[in-house]
What we know:
globular; five-stranded parallel beta sheet; single chain; 5 helices
Amino acid sequence: xxxxxxAEDEPSVREFVQRALVHxxxxxxxxxxxxxxxxxxEDERFDLLLTDIVMPRVDGIALALKASKEYPHMRIVLMxxxxxxxxxxxxxxxxxxxxxxxxFTLSDICDTIDAALNEPPSPGP
Length: 125
């Protein structure tokens, strides 16, 4: 079981992913946008951040950059439905485990999260 922070501004996607991950046995905290996710990161420790890229207030890329700096051992997975945003995220290859394209299936997202959690830690600086 892992503690996962899920940042997604679309309620239906957030609820779908949350249910899937809870069903897999994970403890999931949700945030409606990147700003809420940053607040949650200050209050709790998470094993993995799963965030949409396009969100109000703080987008997923800014969130991933800040989270990776402050919590270098936390795994990060991004989600997006926009090809241009996916390309933008690939500049973060060293920080992000995977960029998942929307729409995705229940098994797609669960497999991606499992792979990210089971990846060996990257060596520190």
